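<instruction>
Derive structure tokens from the sequence
<data>
Labelled lines for chain and fold
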Amino acid sequence: TASCRAKMAAGEERVVGAAPAGYTALAVKFGARQRSPHCLLVKEHQVREGAGTAHPPRRTLFVLNVPPYCSPDSLSRLFTRCGPVQSVEICDKPGPGEKKEKQTSKFFNRKTVTGFQVAYVVFRKPAGVQAAKTLSREGPLLISTESHPVKTGISKWIASYAASVVDREELKAEVDAYMQDYDKKIAEEEAKAAKQEGVPDEEGWVKVTRKGRKPGLPRTEAANLRMLEREKQKRARKELLNFYAWQHRETKREHIAQLRKKFEEDKQRIALMRAQRKFRPY
């Protein structure tokens, strides 16, 4: 009805008007069927004199309240109507905008976005920032289109789950490529160390490595067995011996059995020595 539409329009006006000092509220929608708009708070990015920043002044638009499902491409398409967009950077919190390292892995060090973020939209001309502030007069702006849809709700969860399923062949290829680069790097470091071994530096010092007179313990099977035997002996010394009466009796019984066995072995050895004796004085 007309009254409901009027109430919704009044609600949208209140939402758009409720912006902090210095900011302009832009009402956007991520779908044509979305009833209540979402507000993006924008202003010209300014920094104090002497403070370093990677975002050019007078050409950068600072955007607050960016939802986690809004991508840089979506913001770029939204603000393209204001002028050519040079770059869009989305961050967890405001900062100097230092250059980020390029993500090289698809499976490792993946960061899950859980909350609202901030964005820096850099235009090619300063007029784009001023034009972006006037978008609040146009009413709710539609970000998601048929050609460039923005997934939200159930469709976003389904896409996130599908992306979380790891392709084994692709993962194996990435791990193999990483290990090849790692082996190549280690080989280069070893070749460089071998080339510099025994060569004094500028101050006359010679770097001593483990490959000198006493190299590291070789990891052979015999060395591993000796190490395990030593560990076993250490544990045996730490154990409580003859703590109980039955342990004391067992120890005595084993000691007597060993003495008897040794006595019999000594008798046999003496008898053998007598039989082999060649010098017989009588």
Q: What stands out?
A: The chain has two domains: 2-160, 242-282.
